Amino acid sequence: MGKLSVTIITLNEEKNIRDALESIKWADEIVIVDSGSSDKTVDICKEYTGKIFYNPWPGMNAQKAFAKSLAAHDWILNIDADERVTQELAREIQDILGRGGDCDGYFIPRKVYYLGRWIEHSGWYPNYKLRFFKTNKGRWAGIEPHDAVVVDGKVGYLKGDIHHFTYEDLEGHVATMNRFTSVASREYEKRSKKGGVLNLITRPPLAFFKKYILKQGFRDGLPGLIIAVSSAYYVFLKYAKLWELIHIIRGRASETQRNDDEYKKSYSERLK
């Protein structure tokens, strides 16, 4: 029979973490990696596990990889502090642990609670996430700020949901988009992506069309429209910040370097 380690990374999650821990307290082991909470997050975690570690924030995927490295058992389930494992999903996982499983990793459908309702469409459901996998087969390999697991082997799909209690309100959603687009634009620059006018003009409306029409966001009522518009804005902001990085911020850095070089040259000549 396999044993399960659940890994969770945290930072100031006192509002969420207890419900997350309650949903997985049946696991053989719970591993918490905290990046410096100033609220009661760590105190609450101590009620459920003794395996609590501090690690300064290195990025989403690196932090989750660090948590994985601390897990003692042969299967890992990763959830976020604002997620909950449903009873149906718990039974599926326990069944796989009991019989060994036919796959090396499993995608789990994630259902999001947003603006007072469960989102059933909009590309937000089922929104499969590979979160349950054999420890020696899975590795974190997402593009920041988004996490993703790659499994070296066969993967399957589970039916039970992870429930995701995302942004408390629109203010929180906008703040997260601003933070995530900054991270994403820096990652794009590292990968030599282009932030030209064509991307700014074409990609945002395509994102809206995908969410609202192709993914039937219109069936989610007004929250579906808000999701589609915010998705378009996210894409616009990401490419606008990428353009800024390439043409403005990098230009300022180059100019500063040139001024420094000229000053050093002038100063050296005066010393002669």
Descriptive report:
The chain has 272 residues and is an alpha/beta fold. The protein folds into two domains: 162 residues, Spore Coat Polysaccharide Biosynthesis Protein SpsA, Chain A (Alpha-Beta Complex); 99 residues, no CATH class. It has seven helices and 13 strands. The strands form three sheets. A seven-stranded mixed β-sheet has the order 3-2-1-4-9-6-12, with helices on both faces. The chain is globular. The relative contact order is 0.11.
| CATH 4th-level superfamily of the largest domain | Spore Coat Polysaccharide Biosynthesis Protein SpsA, Chain A
Helix content: 40-55%
**How many individual helices?**
7
> Per CATH, which architecture of the largest domain?
Alpha-Beta Complex
Main sheet: which strands, in order across? 3-2-1-4-9-6-12
Largest sheet: 7 strands, mixed
Strand content: 15-25%
- Strand runs, count: 13
Indicate the radius of gyration in whole angstroms. 22 Å
Summarize the entry for a quick read.
By secondary structure, the protein is an alpha/beta fold.
Summary keywords:
about 20% strand, seven-stranded mixed sheet, 7 helices, alpha/beta, Spore Coat Polysaccharide Biosynthesis Protein SpsA, Chain A, about 270 residues, four-stranded mixed sheet, 2 domains
